[in-house]
Amino acid sequence: MHLADFPQLESATPQQKLELIDELWATIPPDAVATPASHVTELNRRLSVFQDDPKKSMSPEEGRDRIRERTGL
Known about the structure:
- This protein has a domain of 34 residues.
- 56% of the residues lie in helices and 0% in strands.
């Protein structure tokens, strides 16, 4: 399967494409893709930083807002 198989996606907005990515990702069972060891290491590091000082962290909403501000999406 290739992007060329879905010509209607060429005219989709970036937001529509991101929504489709979210929908597709939600259909993949959690155990279908192995988590790289480097990701586990980074998640553990971030958890440790959070546990040391929760004020240094931000909510998911704040994170999304920051990404949207930086990318314009």
